[in-house]
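Forwarding these from the shared drive since the link keeps breaking.
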Amino acid sequence: MITPDTKDWTWVLQRPCADCGLDTPSVVREDVAAMVRVNAAAWVARLAELPEERLRRRPRPEIWSDLEYACHVRDVFRLFDVRLNLMLTQDGPLFANWDQDGTAVAERYDSQDPAVVAVELADAAEQLAASFEVVSGEQWQRTGDRTDGARFTVESFARYLIHDPVHHLYDVTGIVV
């Protein structure tokens, strides 16, 4: 049983992450697209290199397997692309709450095919990277809000986003960026 993560991770916008090593505040917004692609390539390689049994094994019952993390990262890329496009096309959109743990159960992350997940993750990353590449000028200051009250500009949203897949890659590899 996974204990839901209720931590407010927006603190990564203020200081480096002591766990994964990413200095999110210093991330250059225009670099996020390339960072998404690099991160996705590392996930795709991991899904291809490790035996399926290893990908499905949880290190502890309360910690996701590599495959479950990869599914989550894929869905983060998809969700953030939707939210980015809302921020670029609507004034101050409110993002619906996303229950990541509920999604993991409902979508059966633990039983998905690693090869399919790899393709879907790469596609989702490419779509998100392409969406960030067309952001320019004043668009970086457009806003969007989460239902918990967190407000993002497209710029802070980009920095907040990139921490998630980087941190989860650290979760499964232990390699600090």
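-- next protein --
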Amino acid sequence: MADFSWVSRSPLEHALVVGAHGARGTEAGVSLTEIRNFDLIQVMARRGQAAELAKAAKARFGLVAPDAPKAVPTQDAMLIWSGPDQFFVLSKGGKHTMQTLAPALSGPASLSDQSHARALIGISGSKARVMLAKLSSIDLHPATFPIGAAAATSMDHTSVTLWRGGDRPDGQAVFNLLVFATFAESLWHTMLDAAAEYGVDISHSEELA
């Protein structure tokens, strides 16, 4: 009998090359960082159970889950709006998995493990907004898309979830993007092309932004 060995791999394993890309001789205007080894659970209210889910989520996380396009940080997770009556739970370290969330949320909601079905990319730098503007119709001006704002949108005809995290120490905005793993490599190359004229710093990390 064949002995199968299942090893989790990054959807960007073959596309991501750490280091500099694009324009050289100046500080990179865009930083692209793939975040690896995260837990991502999608929580979707059952029909007519949105109010009950809101109560259960508040009891579980200590605050109200987003009911509008925004990302809400908890002590050890990020709750990200992903559509009407549904949200993602993004975390690290196995604290919020199907097994740990089901007892509290599976009554009023359906849960789906998306940990290996999505790629997570952090985008920052002085030209991050300009680069994203080439690929998306979302208005990312700070007055319109402040820290905590989120959107279920498309970039280069690819469905994504985009939200703004906290600023970097240098004051530059940080954006986070979830994309289906099967489309991640294509979108990654598209972003590299869009950012090349500004210079790109490419990396991967185990830490959530």
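Residues 181-195 form the longest helix (15 residues). The mean pLDDT is 93.

- D.
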